Amino acid sequence: MENRRLPAPADVRPPAPATGKLGILTPGLGAVATTFMAGVESIRRGHSKPIGSLTQMATIRLGKRTDHRSPLIRDFVPLAGLDDIVFGAWDPIPDDAYTAARKAGVLEERDLDRVADFLKRIVPMPAVFDNKYVTRITGTNVKQGKTKRDLAEQLRHDIRDFKTRNKLDRVVIVWCASTEIFIRPGPQHATIEQFEKAMERNDDAIAPSMLYAYAAIMEGVPFCNGAPNLCVDTPALTRLANDRGVPISGKDFKTGQTWMKTVIAPGLKARMLGLAGWYSTNILGNRDGEVLDDPASFKTKEESKLSVLHTILQPELYPELYKDFTHVVRINYYPPRGDNKEGWDNIDIVGWMNYPMQIKINFLCRDSILAAPIVLDLALFSDFAQRAGMKGIQEWLSFYYKSPMAAPGLQPEHDLFIQQTKLKNTLRHLLGEDQITHLGLEYYA
Ligand SMILES: NC(=O)c1ccc[n+]([C@@H]2O[C@H](COP(=O)([O-])OP(=O)(O)OC[C@H]3O[C@@H](n4cnc5c(N)ncnc54)[C@H](O)[C@@H]3O)[C@@H](O)[C@H]2O)c1
């Protein structure tokens, strides 16, 4: 966004209101998607609070500090209400959301039982799936098609059908499916013409996630990518999203260890403390952990996790502090832990007169519990972005991603606090409010 001039607040057209129902479709009905859906229903029934969600719980300061105007974001921004959301999904495993949630083992029986009737009604549509891209999963609920283009057309049909069947006003798609193997961007992803030809000749460089993204954009449906796969992050699909006026964002929900990194690293840099090394290791026992046990899928995740520290610490600007630090990330599949991941970070920092110090973090986190509110916020904000006339990469949603997509030639922003400021300032801007600079100029008479 930095290199584009934004219209003055007075010229911003007011976003269209959130009338009617919003459909949220997830490729993937596993741990994250079912925890998200069960949570929203539990909140709707008054059993839970939307903890972790900015759209539901955060406030936003408007005007001067002395104005004392800090409404809830959801009272300030015209977002779809939770009661207006309808869920749907695709998955190669035919389990309904209740069965899938039980297998995922994130939520306890007592919490699932309260929403069991609702979850049982969410049955996944046949997926576009190919074991070549996610080797640890075998699925039976899979679409057949002669070419990848045929498969993408079937997804488009599903989206239209879901919309009509549920009498929806709008739809958003959030990728909550497994991490696919690492794919380097190639000529097949350079332009939409090459992308479409590659779909027609069943080129290996076109992964299932790209077909969902293509189908979404062609249907005018905002698309968010919660996994680190290349997916929508290609010149072909980014341009298509721009041309068709569709907001897109990605990649990889920022939960657990990487979220911690984007909290701690800005703190070290703010105080000009050096970094000698950062060693992160995890044990994880859910299906995501099993998929990531495959070196090809792990490589995709590793790339996503490694980029964070360099962009925050800017070794090119601060070579004495950050030029040669060692960064190691490990994920170990360890079934007894299920979804309850345990992460250890050892951070070797350097202080005054080169004296070494260490920080140790032992994070016993619940990955899907952290991811679920992110899915909700991304869906609601992306829907809002579209009504506000935003299109293409939504950099202001970087707050939610480990590996944020950025316009070509721009470094993605990883610092959680800069991301938060950008998110809130974007909301202020789109609703014609002044940006907050924290300058405190009111004291200069
Ligand atoms: N849990 C977190 O905190 C977190 C954080 C960041 C990213 N993610 C990513 O989110 C994704 C979901 O995580 P999860 O824990 O729910 O995993 P999961 O294994 O429980 O669920 C993934 C589901 O996707 C399905 N799937 C695979 N390929 C598909 C396809 N082509 N179309 C439709 N469905 C497909 C699988 O059958 C499975 O049911 C993963 O890619 C993970 O890396 C999760």
Residue stretches low in confidence (pLDDT < 50, at least 5 long) are: none
Q: How is the main sheet built?
A: 6 strands, parallel
Number of domains: 2
Globular, elongated, flat, extended or rod-shaped: what is the shape?
Answer: globular
Total number of beta strands: 10
Number of helices: 16
Short description:
The chain is an alpha/beta fold and 445 residues long. The chain has helices at 31-44, 54-57, 73-76, 97-104, 109-113, 116-120, 148-165, 192-200, 208-218, 235-243, 256-270, 287-292, 295-313, 319-322, 367-387, 416-430; strands spanning 22-27, 85-90, 170-175, 223-225, 247-250, 274-284, 326-333, 340-350, 356-366, 392-393.
Descriptive notes:
The chain has 445 residues and is α/β, with parallel strands linked by helices. It folds into two domains: 9-253 and 369-430, NAD(P)-binding Rossmann-like Domain (Rossmann fold, 3-Layer(aba) Sandwich); 257-366, Dihydrodipicolinate Reductase, domain 2 (2-Layer Sandwich), CATH 3.30.360. Helix content is 38%, strand content 15%. The chain has helices at 31-44, 54-57, 73-76, 97-104, 109-113, 116-120, 148-165, 192-200, 208-218, 235-243, 256-270, 287-292, 295-313, 319-322, 367-387, 416-430, and strands spanning 22-27, 85-90, 170-175, 223-225, 247-250, 274-284, 326-333, 340-350, 356-366, 392-393. The strands form two sheets. It has a six-stranded parallel β-sheet with strand order 2-1-3-4-5-10, sandwiched between helices. The chain has a four-stranded mixed β-sheet with strand order 7-6-8-9. Strand 8 and strand 9 (356-366) form a beta hairpin. The chain is globular. It starts with 21 loop residues before the first strand and ends in a 15-residue tail after the last helix. The model has no long low-confidence stretch (mean pLDDT 92).
